[in-house]
Amino acid sequence: xxxGRSLIVLLISWDPSxxxxxxxxxxxxxxxxxxxxxxxxxxxxxEIDERFINYLNNxxxxxxxxxxxxxxxxxxxxxxxxxxxxxVDVVLVVNTYIYMSERIHYFRNLKxxxxxxxxxxxxxxxKKTMKVGPPLELRMAPNEVEAELLSAGYTNIRVDHSTLEYxxxxxxxxxx
Length: 176
Fold this sequence. Notes:
Helices cover 29% and strands 27% of the residues. By secondary structure, it is an alpha/beta fold. Strands 3-2-1-4-5-7-6 form a 7-stranded mixed sheet, with helices on both faces.
């Protein structure tokens, strides 16, 4: 099973997406956005680069209306995802966390955008030398991410080190 497919399977097992609104922060070319689209009620692809927003919108136009209408692209600022209060159930952050500045502040504010009972999933590269991923000095160990999420006010944090070969996954809930 590929890493992307493993991640989608895990995300669904952690929280089935049907009827849920999912925000894909740092959506890029939409690898996860378009894989979540058939499973979620709505997917909001959040990006800070307008070129990716244009790419996503172009790709979206090739989908049938039944799926395309579930996708919203949103141009954001590095410090603000431009999500509304209680707009989403799940926030997905894949290979993006380490590039964010003021993460504790960002994720503290992000809690307001997540509905009660919702959560975030952070996926990033393990902090070890590998042939793939960003330079080692940019990577964060999962316990560092966990500490930041705790500081931002998240609870029930679970870390999965083993499902993916190159990445870890962290699921954190917002307090109800």
